[in-house]
Amino acid sequence: MQIALIGAGPRNLAILDRLIQKADSNQALTINIFDPYPVGGRVWNPFFENNQTYLMNTNPNQVTLFNDYDIGQRRGDDLTPNLLTWAQSYALAFLKQHHEYPMAYREEVLSLTSMTAYASRGLMGVYAAWFFEEILKNCPSNLSVRFHQVAVKSLLEANPGFNITTTDYNHFFADKVVLALGHLDAELSEKKKDLEKFAKEKGFHYYPASHPAENDFSNLNENDTVLVQGLGLSFFDDLLSLTAGKGGSFLTKKDGSLVYHPSGHEPHLIIGSGSGLPPRAHGLNQKGANELYQPRFFTLERMQRIAKDCGGHLPYNTFRHVLDQEMTYKYLTNQVNLLDKLSDTEKEEILDFLENPKNWQHVNEKFHLKLDVHISWEKEATPSRDVTSLSAFRKFFVQHLKEDIDSAALGNDKSPLTGAYDILRDVRGTVRTLYNDRLFDEDDYQKLLTDFKLFDSQLSVGPPLIRIRQLLVLIKAKQVTIAGPNFSVDHDQQFFTATDRFDEHYQGTALIEARLGRPDFRTAKSPLLKSLRQHGLIVGDNRIINQDGTAPLANTIKVNLKTFTVYNKENQLIPNLFVTGVPLEGQSWFTTVIPRPHVQTIAFTEAATVVHQILNQ
C-alpha cells in the first residue's frame, strides 16, 4: 500500500507514529511525507532565526509528539519523553550529532530545567526531527518511510488511488492520502492589495497576516512609525523582533522588576486591536504534564444529560451558565486557599460550604470573610467596554497589564483569576465533544463561533507571562503608543492611517497585521488547494446555514467528522482522501492545540481515527 502524508507537522507525525505502531507485519507499506519545510513543519522551523527567540505558549512538560491514544500501549515515559524531559536527556547528544542546528539550541537545552519555563519554537522543531529519527528506528522492515522536503503542487484521482505532482515536477502514486496542511497564507483581498501597492509606491513596508517568524523587519528602524494591528500571540512575536531584535535589551533588576534599555534603532510602535487589549497571560505553570482540572459542575456527563432533557440540544445560555459557574467555584476556592489567617480546618469547612452554589452569596456573612463573590466572566473578557476616552483607556490598559501580571504570577492552579481562566484550556475536550456531537442548534453554533470564541481566546490563549511584563516596560520606555479599541487601518495620500473607537487618528510608515490568516481553503495561496478546488475534490461545509442563507463554515473543507474522509463537489465521500487539523477549524472545536501527553489530545484522537480508516478500509 502506498500512503502519502502531505504536511510534516505534529498532526501527520502523529499519524506516522500510529501507522508504525498499528501496521500489520504481513502488509508492505510505503509512506511518502511531503513538506516544503523541515520535519516538524512551518511553525516550528528551527532554521528560521526568529524561532530561536520566539516562545511556544505551552509549557514544555505539556508538549509531546509520542502518540499515547492507547493508554498503556506505549513504552515507558523515559523512552517517550515530553519536550521538557527530552531537553533534559536526549537533546544535547542529538544536537552534537547534528551540526546543522544553530548553537543557540544547545545553550537553550542546558537552561531549560523547569516546567515553569518556555521552550523556543525552534527547539520544538529540533524535538520533531529527533522524534522522526527515533520512531524510524522502530520501523518494521515491511514499512518504508521517506521524507521529501518539497511542496505538493497537485493531487488528482487515479481511480483507484491518487496521482501526486510536487513543485519540482516529480510524480508519485498513493492509494491513500492525508492532508494536514496547518495555517496557510491567503491571497490578498482587494483592500490588502491596495495597501501593498501603496507601500511599494511610497517605499513603505506592509506585512499582511502570516507566520510572524518569516517577517523581515531588517529595513525598519528609528525613522519608522509602525502601526501594529492585532494584540494576540503574533503581536508579541513582532514586538520582540522590533525591540530586542533591534538591539534593545530587557534586564532584570535586583528587586526582580524588569527594565528596557533601547538601542536607539527601534521603530516607534502604535498598537491596537478590535478589543483593544491583549489576551490574559498564561499563569506560572503549577501543573504536571497530564494534570487537568477536574470539573465539579461542567462535566461532559452533566452537559449531555442537559442536552437530552432539552430534546437533544444544549442551549448556549445553559452551556455558558454552567461553565461560568465552574470558573466561579475555582475563583472562590482559590481565594479561600490564599487566606493565610485561616487554619486548614477552617478552610476545609468553608470549602465544603462552597460546594453548593446557593451558598456563595452567604459565605462572607457566615464566615466573616471578604471574598469577592460577584464576578462577571463576560466583563473579564471585555473589561474596557465602558471606558469613554483615550486617556482613560491608556491608564486602564497599563493597570490591566499590572493586575494581569500579579494574577498570573500566583500560578495557573492557585491564582483565583488566572486559575479560573486556565480551566478553559483544561475543559476543551468537553467543549469539543459537545461541539462535534452537534448538540447546539444553528443559532447557538453562531454564538460559539463568535461570542464564545472571543471569550475563550481573551482568557485562555494568551502569551507567556514574560511577554506581558515586557510589553509593560516597553510602554513605560515610550517605545509603544497605545491606541483604543476598534483599531482600523487604511491609508491616505501620504501615510498608513488608523482610527479607533475614540475617533483618534494615527499615521505610520509601516503596517503590520499581527495575526495568522483566518483558515479559509477558498482563498489559500496553496497550489495544492487550488488544484483540489478546481477539480471539485474539496468543497466548503454547508451543513449549518444562517437565517440570511450564509454558511458560517463555508471556509472549511467539508469532511465526515467520524472518519475525516473528504466530500467532493457532488457531496460524495472520496474514499481514502483525508483532511485533519486547521482546515477543519469551525467544524471541529479548537484544532490548533499542540499535542499534550496522556490526556487524549485531539491530534492523537484524530490520528487514531484516520489510521484505523487507512489500515482497515
Layout of strands and helices, then pairs:
Elements: E1 2-6, H1 10-22, E2 29-34, H2 83-87, H3 91-97, H4 103-111, H5 121-137, E3 143-148, E4 152-157, E5 162-166, E6 171-174, E7 176-179, H6 190-202, E8 205-207, E9 225-229, H7 233-241, E10 249-252, E11 258-261, E12 268-272, H8 300-309, H9 316-337, H10 344-354, H11 363-367, H12 377-381, H13 390-409, H14 416-426, H15 428-436, H16 442-460, H17 465-476, E13 480-482, E14 488-491, E15 496-499, E16 505-508, E17 510-513, H18 527-534, E18 559-560, E19 565-567, E20 573-579, H19 602-616
Parallel strand pairs: 1-2, 1-7, 2-3, 7-20, 8-17, 9-12, 9-17, 12-13
Antiparallel strand pairs: 4-5, 5-6, 10-11, 14-15, 15-16, 18-19, 19-20
Helix pairs in contact: 1-5, 1-19, 3-4, 9-10, 9-14, 13-17
Q: For the largest beta sheet, what order do the strands appear in spatially?
A: 3-2-1-7-20-19-18
CA-atom Rg in angstroms: 25 Å
- Oligomer status: single chain
Mean pLDDT: 96
Counted by DSSP, the helix tally is 19
Specify the structural class: alpha/beta
End-to-end distance: 12 Å
Spans of at least 5 consecutive residues with low confidence: none
Shape: globular
Number-wise, the strands total 20
**Strand composition percent:** 5-15%
Major sheet attributes: 7 strands, mixed
Helix residue percentage: 25-40%
